[in-house]
Amino acid sequence: MAGVAGRLARLWCSGALSSPLQVTRFPALQLHLCGPAMRASQKDFENALNQVKLLKKDPGNEVKLKLYALYKQATEGPCNVPKPGVLDFINKAKWDAWNALGSLPKETARRNYVDLVSSLSASSESSIQVTPAADRKQPGSDALVVTSQDGITTITLNRPDKKNALTTQMYHDIILALEAASKDDSAITVLTGNGDYYCSGNDLTNFTDIPPGGVEEKARSGAVLLRDFVDCFIDFPKPLVAVVNGPAVGISVTILGLFDIVYATDRATFHTPFSHLGQSPEGCSSYTFPKIMGPSKATEMLVFGKKLTAREACTQGLVTEVFPDSTFQKEVWVRLKAYSKLPPNAMRISKQVIRNTEKEKLHAINAEESNVLRERWLSDECMNAVVSFLSKKAKL
Ligand SMILES: CCCC/C=C/CC(=O)SCCNC(=O)CCNC(=O)[C@H](O)C(C)(C)COP(=O)(O)OP(=O)(O)OC[C@H]1O[C@@H](n2cnc3c(N)ncnc32)[C@H](O)[C@@H]1OP(=O)(O)O
């Protein structure tokens, strides 16, 4: 059984158990009948499906099986598929869990799924808010989770096993999420990460997906994507807040100069090792960093790759405020919820007054940085650095 549990845990981590599993064997999680007044709406159910992706603690295999069974019952009804063979351990465990729900009505399964996820979230110390805006289209993959609640739209990088490195798909999804957030009824937008890292920057495996046009075409399309991505941050009309939950690397650091507020845990570090990687600064940092911290401190970071602690980054103006890691999530979300109740139009207009004079300049800088980086990506220095990382010879 330990072997099966281990394999299930690995499958869970890999996302292969697409939707998790509750059952009769666990009295603490008894299923209950509910009347119309206690119905879980489809929206509640979808929220719970999103919420489960953001659990900070692994809930364990038994709970995952319960989630799986409830999900299947809620979406497909009673189990009437053939029982897997005895040696097909994983599918048999899943089938047993689903089958144990018998003729439990779909609606009750849905309610129980929502309740179970809610109890798990309450005990997982996660203070990420996870109600999607009613009409928001969710990103194409689980690597980005967009939620909206209490006047705050939160975009969460959700690849904790890869330190939230940004894939090409994630850049596209963040662009779409920012466009949607700029038009939704939230007052504030937040970018944060799930897991121990905020973000480890560009996913270096992005460089391995070479199109038929070769590396030149790859560099060209990368530069266009980079420019579009950074343009969205330059133009974002509402207060934009980074909740930096852990170390930040590369482009996740450089774009902080385009945020309005940066809150960081004292566990966070800020690292832009562009020379080490044969690359050059992006995210308008060649302009914003010298402006924020003065040219020599900016040079230490952007040219020599000096890694800053959260407190150093705060002293130098890149970070607004640093919080102890133990109270970080609680303190930050209490603060943001209070800010989100301020009149939204006034906040938007005040941001414009502060930022608009710089916009044209920032767009020009973004275009220039993207062009320079396009050349850099074709350099031996950059290619060697990427190959070293991918062959596990080098790490920052
Ligand atoms: C189109 C726009 C382009 C914009 C360009 C932006 C430029 C940049 O962002 S430059 C910065 C690029 N980032 C890096 O160079 C970071 C590389 N990663 C590391 O050095 C280390 O992974 C780490 C210091 C971040 C963490 O080290 P740690 O020992 O704690 O964990 P690992 O075992 O190394 O990582 C776990 C897992 O995650 C994978 N991973 C982490 N970061 C990246 C990344 N940036 N790209 C691809 N993969 C990454 C790492 O390989 C591990 O994967 P496996 O478990 O499969 O080995």
Features:
Acyl-CoA-binding_protein, binds ligand LG6FSS7D, alpha/beta, 2-enoyl-CoA Hydratase, Chain A, domain 1, 396 residues, three-stranded mixed beta sheet, isomerase
Topology of this structure?
Layout: H1 2-14, H2 42-53, H3 61-76, H4 89-99, H5 106-123, E1 144-149, E2 152-157, H6 168-183, E3 188-193, H7 214-235, E4 240-244, E5 248-249, H8 251-254, E6 261-265, E7 269-271, H9 285-293, H10 295-302, E8 308-309, H11 310-315, E9 321-323, H12 328-339, H13 344-377, H14 380-390
Helix pairs in contact: 2-5, 3-4, 3-5, 6-7, 7-13, 9-10
Bound molecules: ligand LG6FSS7D.
Residues 162-163, 165, 171, 200-205, 222, 225-226, 249-251, 277, 279, 282, 389, 395-396 line the site of ligand LG6FSS7D.
Please describe what this structure looks like.
- One of its GO terms (cellular component) is mitochondrion.
- Pathway: Lipid metabolism; fatty acid beta-oxidation.
- Pfam families: ACBP, ECH_1.
- InterPro entries: Acyl-CoA-binding_prot_CS, Acyl-CoA-binding_protein, Acyl-CoA-binding_sf, ClpP/crotonase-like_dom_sf, ECH/Chromodomain_protein, Enoyl-CoA_hydra/iso, Enoyl-CoA_hydra_C, FERM/acyl-CoA-bd_prot_sf.
- By secondary structure, the chain is an alpha/beta fold.
- The chain has 2 domains: 42-122, Acyl-CoA Binding Protein (Up-down Bundle); 144-394, 2-enoyl-CoA Hydratase, Chain A, domain 1.
- Helix content is 48%, strand content 10%.
- The protein contains 14 helices and 9 strands.
- The chain has helices spanning 2-14, 42-53, 61-76, 89-99, 106-123, 168-183, 214-235, 251-254, 285-293, 295-302, 310-315, 328-339, 344-377, 380-390, and strands at residues 144-149, 152-157, 188-193, 240-244, 248-249, 261-265, 269-271, 308-309, 321-323.
- Helix 2 packs parallel to helix 5.
- The model is unreliable at 1-37 and 125-131 (pLDDT under 50).
- Bound molecules: ligand LG6FSS7D.
- Ligand LG6FSS7D binds at residues 162-163, 165, 171, 200-205, 222, 225-226, 249-251, 277, 279, 282, 389, 395-396.
